[in-house]
Amino acid sequence: MFFKKQFANVVEWEEFREDMIFWKWSNTEIKRGSKLIIRPGQDAIFLNAGRIEGIFTDEGDYDIESQIIPFLSTLKGFKFGFNSGMRAEVLFVNTKEFTVKWGTQNAINMPHPQLPGGIPIRANGTLNFKVNDYVALIDKIAGVKSSYYVEDVKLRISSNLDQLLMKWISKEGKDMFNLQANAFDISNGIKQDLDMSIYDDGLTITGFNVMSFNYPAEIQDRITKTASHSMIGDLGKYQQVEMVDGMASGKVQGGGAASDMAGMMMGMNVANEMMKNINPNQTNQTNQTNAATNQNQKQQSAPQVRSNFCPNCGTKTGESNFCANCGHKLV
Q: Are 57 and 43 contacting, i.e. CB atoms less than 8 angstroms apart?
């Protein structure tokens, strides 16, 4: 009884973490009387010399000698001796679907007709993956690692993600509007490409979503300022409005009455410019009327010059107020 308790052990996932994809039981010798514990969301894989002996997927507690060994492929005839144990590795695999948040490591240049190098954009979203092929997982990763984490997969995917985004943005993105409108197609295309890149590792991409495309902060600031300028009219007007707003809010300090007068004049100028933009036709009509009035005033105020010939018969006249030939009144 003493020896039975001394050599008995429990085979279970001792270092379980939610972000751990698999963990390999480190004690390679399983003693007589040992038990296997499988918790929800776990599969247990028995390995011998790197070869799969059996896969157990149902949660519960199992007696290894009576409930596990009979189902192992080449070890099912194994018999425990008094002090001898069964040499085998047990790989525990997390069967759940993992979710990873991603974002572009570097800005990606979107084609733009006025910028040969393109305009930089960034993207972010989520992706989902899970283990789907134990043979490939053991052959590529678990054969040389004792544990594997979500962060390891994230690093593997991130190395390819920027290139895939550039590929699909070049196909679908003419501008920011088109990128947002075609986000579903871009997501599906990247999902398929990523799935192919990690398929040989025994993993599969079960979902990929682009949550948003956006410009880098410095580019977005310039776009916002440009839009503000275009809404007001031009830079001069924008500066005037900014000055008036600054005085009204107290951010711009002035010199008493002089500052108030300057603010009032700026406000009147801005108001005039805004009225011109609101009703340009009325302004043009007013300008035309003023021009015609000025012309009439010039004509009326100009001195009248007397002609040297009679406008009626053409006879040369002198200083008289009437024509000597036909009697026509001269101006």
A: yes
| Measured distance CA(202)–CA(255) in Å, rounded | 75
What is d(CA 262, CA 255) in angstroms, rounded to the nearest whole number? 10
Token couple for 114: 């006025």
Please tell me the pTM assigned to this model.
0.63
The band of 308, judged by pLDDT with boundaries at 50, 70 and 90, is confident
Residues 71-110 pLDDT 10s: 998 888 787 766 678 888 999 999 999 999 999 888 888 7
Who's near 242: CB < 8 A, 6+ residues apart?
Answer: none
Over residues 216-270, the pLDDT tens digits come to 776 666 666 665 656 555 556 666 666 656 655 665 555 555 455 555 555 566 5
Strands (E), the chain: 10-11, 20-24, 29-30, 35-38, 42-48, 51-56, 60-63, 86-87, 89-94, 98-103, 108-112, 115-131, 147-149, 203-214
Q: What is the DSSP string of 58-85?
A: S-EEEEIIIIIGGG-TTTTT----SS--
* Count of CB atoms situated within 10 Å of the CB of 40: 8
Dist CA 98 CA 128 (whole Å): 5
